[in-house]
Amino acid sequence: MRPPPPPRPGPLVPPPPDLAGTGSAGGDASGAVLRYAGGLLRPVLPELVRGALAELRAASAYYGDPVLAPPDLADSAREALDVFTGGLVDPERTDASGEHAWRTGLRRAADGVPLRAVLHAYRIGGVRLWEALVSLVVRERPDRASALAFAASDVWRRVDRDTALLAEAHRRAAARLPDLAVRRHLPVLRMLLRGHADPVHLSAFAVSLGLPVAGRYTVALLAGPGAARAETDPVREVRDGVPLYWCPLDDATAVVAHLGDRPELPAGLIPPGPADRGGVGTPVAGLAALGRGYGLARLALAACPADGTLHRLGDRWSRAFAVARPDLADAVADQLLGPLRTLDPAERAELLATLAAWLDRGSTRRAGELLYCHRNTVLNRLRRLERLTGRTLSHPRDVVDLALALEAEDTSAPAARSR
What is the DSSP annotation of 342-403? Predict the structure, then answer.
């Protein structure tokens, strides 16, 4: 007995007539229901993002690891879903999600995120978005659910397009970058510099970088047009026997130096360019302290007095104090040097320069040599400064106060100095 013939497929059911468009771009049934669904989705996007991130972290070993996961993951996911939803609501913005996917592919390749992990994230986001669209339309307008079925192919075509753009951008960027193992140093270094010191992860950090957990380190920061480094530049190099790890940041380039048994970073090891400035923090003990080392380097950079200079924080603590607390610095400068602001600007500058030379050189004779004037001239200027400030340079505490006031005056904003 012959088996019955397979059933013939039924006729294609057209979309509901109330959603049929006029033929204009985005005016068909698919476009109409997607515009409606996108409008419903907008208010619940934050909840959708949280759910997608929770699923991604649970399903992906890469994104579930706080060490490896990109720090901007939540912001990137929020922007991706928002841009995609915007393309559903406004057909003129359909290409925006593809452009975002391309930028994401480039960025994740530079971060060292494997392509498979990035594609996994996009698949989860796409599924979550589609499920939310269906749920919202069925709940709010069940009569439009059948039209949404016809729109599915349109949504997934867009998802496939964005995924293809993401993959191609990632492949192109990865082809121009160093080995993946080297690129993984950058997210690890950034985590450490941000202060991530979880003992569970420190051993993995140390193995990844090839550095001891309990070593002695110092952090330097370089800023300026010549200090920028590309993501393709080597992360690690050795200069004069000192391992240096270079880490590009948003506004500067950080250098983590493993000092070994050296007391500090050797002079001239990382000279700044003529238009650049640098700051070197004091040494810290262990990888767990690199966050504090970064903060010290940031303070040293802020205290750097001139272009082409690498300022060591420990060389001039009074300047570091003035930079660390600008509010107190202004108060000190106002109280001690306020009387000088009533003088002619040239005379005020002359008295301050004389005080600085005397503090730097330690005697009126040597200060006079620096200023090209007789020591008696230096002495007369200092006596006038004592009368104006009410401080005596033969009293050590008064000298400390005036030194701090001078640093505060030097590091204050021009508006504050001209009051």
Answer: GS-HHHHHHHHHHHHHHHHHSSHHHHHHHHTS-HHHHHHHHHHHHHHH---TTSHHHHHHHH
